[in-house]
Amino acid sequence: MAAPGPGEYFSVGNHVSCLTCLGQRLQGEVVAFDYQSKMLTLKCPSSSGKLNLSDVLLINLAYVSSVDIINDRTETPPPLASLNVNKLAIRARAEKEDKLSQAYAVSAGVSVEGQQLFQTIHKTIKDCKWQEKNIIVMDDVVIAPPYQVDNCKGKEGGSALSHVRKIVEKHFKDVETQKVMQRSTAQQAQKDSALSS
């Protein structure tokens, strides 16, 4: 497509249809257009089929062969929804802490199994951290290397210790099941390859 000339732009709220250079047709409502980078942002019905959700597509107009305006919005678009900046900052801080925790585990020489177990526990219980090579869960349970159920220490009879032991046990069962499936798939591939030769 020829690059839009000076003064040519897409108004927020317009419904457009784009044909990519690969022949894919994309349709949606214009959410934003950046003239400098020739990037068009469209809001489209959700690919999941859920009516309360939308897909957002970023389209580089350098890879679009044509754009047709289906419906030109003449009225002023509604104001943008306000962002909860505090919630975004909290989420960014939590993500940063997670990444730093992962980096700490690698730099401390924690085994891959220990790192995987930490990730599994962290999905269920956010209050877990590293203390050297030990995993500390809710400040009540300590899991020492090699990170098996027997390595979980805490107040005996406590619900936290019992819950963490169940998570550890399930984690290692799932890992073992995954290994069995991978071996089975590899053996089947070997058999298939031997039969075809």
Describe the protein's topology.
Layout (H helix, E strand, L loop, with lengths): L14 E6 L4 E10 L4 E7 L8 E7 L3 E8 L13 H23 L4 H13 L3 E4 L2 E4 L3 E3 L8 E2 L5 H38 L1
Antiparallel strand pairs: 1-2, 1-5, 2-3, 3-4, 6-7, 7-8, 8-9
Q: For the terminal residues, how far apart are their CA atoms?
A: 50 Å
Count of alpha and pi helical runs: 3
- Largest sheet: number of strands, sense, barrel closure: 5 strands, antiparallel
What percentage of amino acids are in beta strands? 25-35%
Oligomer: single chain
Structural descriptors:
197 residues, 5-stranded antiparallel beta sheet
3D structure, described in words:
- The two termini are 50 Å apart.
- The strands form two sheets. This protein has a five-stranded antiparallel beta sheet, with no helix packed on it.
- The longest helix has 38 residues, at 159-196.
- The chain has 197 residues and is α+β, with helices and mostly antiparallel strands.
- It is built from three helices and nine strands, in the order E-E-E-E-E-H-H-E-E-E-E-H.
In short:
The chain is α+β, with helices and mostly antiparallel strands. Helices cover 38% and strands 26% of the residues.
